[in-house]
Amino acid sequence: MNTMSARLRNRWVWRALVIVVAILLLAAPLFLPVFANQTLIRIGVYAVAVLGLNIVMGYTGQVNLGQIFFLGLGAYAAAYGVTHDWNVVLVFVAACVIPGVVGLLVALAAARLGGLAIAMVTIALPIVGVPLAKRLSGLTGGSQGTSARFSSAPDWTGLYNDQWQFYIVLVVAAAAFLLARNLVRGKFGRALVAVRKNEAVAASMGVSPYRYKVLAFTIASILGGVSGFLYLVAVQYTSPETLSFGHSIALVAAMVIGGAGRITGSLLGGAYYVFVPQLTNAIDPNLTAVSQGLILLAVLFLLPGGLVSLPRVIGRLTRRPSARPSQEDSPQTPPAQHPSTDSAQA
Amino acid sequence: MGTFIQLVVDGLSTGSIYAALALAIVLVNQATGLINFAQGGMAVLSAYIAYSFVRLGLPVLLGILAAVVVSFFIGAVVERFLIRRFERGDPDTAIVVTIGLLTLLTGVCAWIWSYDNRPFPSLFPLTSVDMFGVVVSVRSVGTTLAIIAIMVVLQLLFFGTKLGLALRAVAVNPASAAFSGLPVGRLLMVGWGLAAALGAIAGSLVAPQLSLTPGMLDTPLVYALAAVILGGLSSPIGAVVAAWAIGVLESLVAVYVPFIGHDLKIAVPFILIFVILVVRPQGLFGRKVVVRV
Prior knowledge:
The structure holds two protein chains of two kinds. Chain A is mainly α. Chain A has helices at 3-31, 34-59, 67-83, 88-110, 115-122, 124-135, 137-140, 161-185, 187-197, 199-204, 209-235, 245-258, 263-283, 288-302, 310-318; strands spanning 146-147, 237-238. Mean pLDDT of chain A is 83; it is low at 326-346. Chain B contains twelve helices and two strands, in the order ααααββαααααααα. The longest helix of chain B has 31 residues, at 2-32. The chains are: A mainly alpha, B mainly alpha.
């Protein structure tokens, strides 16, 4: 088979798909019921948080258990700005910059340790964050939290609030995904993968692992702040509960289940984060945690590349067993799965 | 001065709880090269098992011992059927596996025993004794002594026995260990089993103080991880001393630094780590850390 033309065709199919999806997304809020819109909004919010986590964990290989802290920080920064009548652009900038600076400081210290220690340091962020948010009640409203109603639809649009919020989230999330996609496809992305694969080799080729780890962590924190801003757009309220430890774990699970090291995996991760608790709650609220743990472990066992690798796996299974695909990934995507998990049965 | 000594003693006793978890983390790490974030969850499950034995009418000590035995097997089974698939793979995947395990175990505990607080009988009498003008509860002294004993046993195990040597060999280089004829798989199971058994002791010692809930050890786990960072992953003594230092420090800071107080004292170990890392960028693994703390 001529792989070149297949790729070309693939690209056109891909572009057509993107356009169709874009049109669907633009039209969807006008027809969908409010609840569906709100669900899609929340998927967008968490997809951006998972996207940040994916850059630091999926691409750079640093386990970050504190991503929800940056979402909370962004939400609080936005809430503070809104309640003090800042311009909305300034609010957005604050929601990006404050988590970014905090993330940079944390990374400067944490990246000096090995990968395991980063996980151990970041686990502290949400656990310290919750009492801190309660304590700094002048800024955060304490345990009651603060509400900020700033994302109502302006009259000239003729839209309902949920539709307006949908478009805000859509635009910001699409921009975040596009930027992240371009980032990881370029030189920066290759450097991240090099650091992930083998720090010593990366260093010997002039790619400073420390620098790239810190950069990746900072970018992830900024994206966390962006999703915090979107969270406030969608929920219009934030409290210490927003940044609790359990949510942070759930974000990591969502990232892995969606697909580590894949941009579209983040979107699936966001959907997982929103849908699965609804689903498991509907089955039996007492079993929510059990089923979430089981789903995570099952995905790690059966589908180490995450949901995003599902089509490929199905394709491989339905094809004749002898016809091994020569190039499993499309050329632009970095390695989807943790390569070593297959050979773990030593 | 009296309060100061009292605070130090209290700090040592809470530090001992962190130390027990830290020891279990060090044990798994020494035996398998992993960090087990589910350690707290496993310890809580063990404590619930001990609780159930006691409810069935066993004396407290026997209930705890039975839980220790059961936990050993749970740990070994978890290693064999869950962790082994990921052990030699990407360490990040393995970490996520232990996180999934933590979620699962917490869920199982909540499902079987509900989220309600359960009173757990104390192994030690609940009386206090007056020592040099300081009131010390017998339970604290007992917990601390138990931790010291476990630490000594572990240190002897790792550095004084053939089993310890084999465990360390497997952790450092499983391939070479296998070539030298060591049963790598079985040693890994033993390592996890021992860590789970240790977790059972830790959970049972802590449960009377915190009262038994599925999320009981989430916060102590964070302290234990901090202790492991400060004390070094390779040194049981280092981890214990760091855990005590953290316990004492948070107890003092909670009282003497009003801004931090009781709700923010969990930030103390991490500020400490942060400062140390900034001052000494090369990192402070091993015993040197402990001296500086």
